Amino acid sequence: MARFPSLQHLELRNCDQAMLSLANFTSLLTLAIDRIPEIHSISGSFLAGNTFLTSLEISPCPKLILIPSELGSFTALKSLTIRWCEELMSLPQSLQNPNALESLEISECYSMTSLPDNGLQGLSSLRPLSIENCNSLTSVSSSLEHLTSLEHLTIMCCPSLGSLSHTVFVP
């Protein structure tokens, strides 16, 4: 049972990772997890039941290595921002599921090597996509061609990224 059943906006900043296991907040609209330096993973049980969540921001959590697959069950999620998670190597496979996702920003995730295996193809509502300063990212091109609503694309300072296929940009 949630301790704050009507809580809609939660910002966890500069706190201990134990705060993430306090309760199951089922009415959240926005969640910001900020400056939790020792966190390695975000518990799926902490996020479970957040069917109303529209915005999730995770930054900076330099030791974060795992974002739970429950992220894909957030059908109302419109905005996802992941910044300065230096140890995060990949996004969950389920990321392609939230069809409502309109904005995705991934930056300063130096260890991220890839996007989910099937890319971002299920994100049919995605309009801006920003991938910046992901030094180890090697490929994104196969996932871009399925983003039919994409209006703004920024890929910047990703030195390991191979060339983008020209077929991604040709109608």
Automatic annotation (TrEMBL):
This is Uncharacterized protein. It comes from Populus alba (White poplar).
